[in-house]
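Milestone M4 deliverable, item 7.
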Amino acid sequence: MSSRKTSRQEQRNLINSQNITWRNDNSKFGQVMLEKMGWKPGSGLGKYEQGITENLQMKANVLTKGLGCNERNDEVWIAHHDSFAAILADLNKKKEKSKANPVKNNLNKVKSKVILNEHRKDRYIPNLSMMSEKDKCAIFGKRSIPSTIDKNIDESKQKDEVKSASSSGNMVVNKISINDYFAEKMLKLNERRKF
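Output delivered:
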């Protein structure tokens, strides 16, 4: 640890804020090039030599506060933090007021779902006591009234069946849903089993 402290102290002492060694070095590439073009040491750059005449100086960050931090900003940041916290509090109040209105809509959603497990609140199951028979049949995959489905299948079969030619041969395109298609297949299968 003591070796680190000495090396840091040496590095801090070696910082040359005026950059004297660079200024006194006359063999720099940029300086040689500018002198060939007619620039003289001590004059500024530009058409009328209006540029800065001193070399750029770097400020050492001894306090390690970060770039752009000065004493004024160091004292004021607490006030900025307090004002930002006040703005957030105002926004939260407005958000709470807006949440108070749609409570009735949320109650309906909560009634339609039952929590499956206390520890896993992200899993919900539908509340079947509040659903109609049609919805229950859709969930469990049962047919509610088979006679109306058979009539609908026959009508849709006659209307929607279209034959078209494709590059691979004749292709039959049906404009019926997948559920109706498989219902028709099941009826045909049941008729075959009866014989």
